Amino acid sequence: MIIQLKRAYEPALPGDGVRVLVDRLWPRGISKEVAQLDDWMKDVAPSTDLRKWFGHDPAKWPEFQHRYREELASRGADLDRLRDLARKGPLTLIYAAHDEAHNDAVVLRDVLLGVRPSGGRP
Description:
Layout (H helix, E strand, L loop, with lengths): L2 E5 L10 E4 L10 H4 L3 E2 L7 H7 L6 H12 L3 H13 L2 E5 L8 H10 L9
Parallel strand pairs: 1-4, 2-3, 2-4
Helix pairs in contact: 3-5
């Protein structure tokens, strides 16, 4: 499976394959035409409470990964759908966060690929 990550503010490229926005909120200043998305899966994004608690604070990253993985455990059908898309060709998870290393798309990709969390909690 090829699962790529890309900020919503980067241009769409043919190699992106299926482009799925995985944020609960639409990226500011981006039109639907520019985003060139195939789908928007709000339900796989972190809950509003978790997103606000995390606040993109790298110090909270290990705990955020743990809590988000717990939320994703109840989203089996959505995860299966994303895995099916990735098995058919490249899948690009689109996100808006500035931090490319500490965001929900990183955790989601790792969950889809069966990668264990990094730093701290299991």
